[in-house]
Amino acid sequence: MMLLDGNNLTLEKCQKVIYQNEKVGLTEAAWQRVEASRKTVDQAVSDDTVVYGVTTGFGKFSDVTIENDLVADLQMNLIRSHACAVGTPFPEPVTRAMMLLRANALAKGFSGVRRELLQLLLDLLNHRIHPVIPQQGSLGASGDLAPLAHLASVLIGEGEAFVAGRRMAGKDALAQAGLKPVRLAAKEGLALINGTQAMTAVGLIAYLEARNLADRADEIAAMTLECLRGVTDAFHPDVHAVRPYPEQAEVARRILDQVDGSQLVTRQGDIRVQDAYSLRCIPQVHGASRQALRYVREKLLIEMNAATDNPLIFAERGDIVSGGNFHGQPIALAMDFLKIAMAELANVSERRIERLVNPQLNDLPGFLSPKPGLQSGMMIPQYVAASIVSENKVLAHPASVDSIPSSANQEDHVSMGTTAARHALKVVQNVRKVLAIEAMCAAQALEMRGVDKAGRGTRQLYRDIRQRVAPLTRDRSLSKDIERLSEWL
């Protein structure tokens, strides 16, 4: 069982919980912090202290005092009123990530929840009870209120959940696992929904796939370079040492490793002096995207281990402080950066696809067709790639530059971080399809050049592709082939 302490959650640990269903608990020190922060909340309620969201209303209603005997009703009403997100539910990995991240944030001991509430959240994760959380509706400031309210709804025996692929009422999902809903106490509703866990969860899933695709993009680009008799001088370590971006040098090294032993790549002057940018500048373009990924990783790791609700409980000194850690601007900017960086991997991939299929740009059969003219070969896959790349350009428009005031202008600047994260995930999924098309075209071209002449790395990549997609010997629908390669990637 993985024990959370609120401070040391890593990407690798997240993967184990999200994809391998590893069980989760809390360290004893974390439980002690949780209980200490709860005592501070109880004392504030007992003393009739004015505390935002505990003895007051929310947002613009923060100046409305709530009577002591109604503070529990206030929290239940908060979840019910805020659970109004719309759209297709988040996929299971995102929901699991959201639950894990929220539990880790509560484990820090700055949120004031009771032990029984946090334990129930852990139980949901461990029993694979996944709340139905619609994707649209968060402004990304005041936290991911609407999505997290849907998560919280199941904890109180309301809302809906997926269990083993079946959609059912939240209360039935709990009962099926032998669990009982909780009635929220002071501060707990706010502690559950005032945070950035929706945008961070989506961003985490997007990053994990993006990180993998960055490697695949290098490998596929190396095969294309080989098929087009590319000049390897541009990848020499000395070239990249004088512009010392480590990611750029890493990509160049990876490309040379892939084509090591190849009889197809050329040296400067053998056939041409230099290649087009989509080949010659692979290290510079792919490397820059890797730089962005490094930035995104850094921000995700901070946010995954942060307290992002409001107010925060500082039990050691008995203070309850209102702040703005729920504002998603750091993740919003990171997600906009991620989608721009990944869109560029698809942009340059599509240009390489064009160089593979265009008979005016190479000496291969037109559109890699078995019978050019009679058969169209790989003509239309390039169209598909161009369409997807164009869609990515629309999605890559930054969401973080937009803000619409809410709550009667009390919340007058918001991050739109969840929109940025959702679009980033879509861009990443689109990149996968474009890279699949390049891989399919490159494998076809390599057969025409001679697979036995390929480098050690590209030859293995060719075998991997051919295990999933047959050679194009005559025209056929390639839609399922593209999807199959995309899923593999």
UniProtKB/TrEMBL annotation:
Contains an active site 4-methylidene-imidazol-5-one (MIO), which is formed autocatalytically by cyclization and dehydration of residues Ala-Ser-Gly. Its EC number is 4.3.1.3. GO terms for biological process: L-histidine catabolic process to glutamate and formamide; L-histidine catabolic process to glutamate and formate. PANTHER family: HISTIDINE AMMONIA-LYASE. The keyword Chloroplast does not apply. It is found in: Cytoplasm. Pfam families: Lyase_aromatic. This is Histidine ammonia-lyase. The keyword Lyase applies. There is a cross-link at A141-G143 (5-imidazolinone (Ala-Gly)). InterPro entries: Aromatic_Lyase, Fumarase/histidase_N, HutH, L-Aspartase-like, Phe/His_NH3-lyase_AS. One of its GO terms (cellular component) is cytoplasm. Belongs to the PAL/histidase family. The modification 2,3-didehydroalanine (Ser) is found at S142. One of its GO terms (molecular function) is histidine ammonia-lyase activity. Pathway: Amino-acid degradation; L-histidine degradation into L-glutamate; N-formimidoyl-L-glutamate from L-histidine: step 1/3. It catalyses: L-histidine = trans-urocanate + NH4(+). The lineage of its organism: Bacteria, Bacillati, Bacillota, Bacilli, Bacillales. It is an enzyme of class 4 (lyase). Keywords: Cytoplasm, Histidine metabolism, Lyase. Its main location: cytoplasm. The gene is hutH.
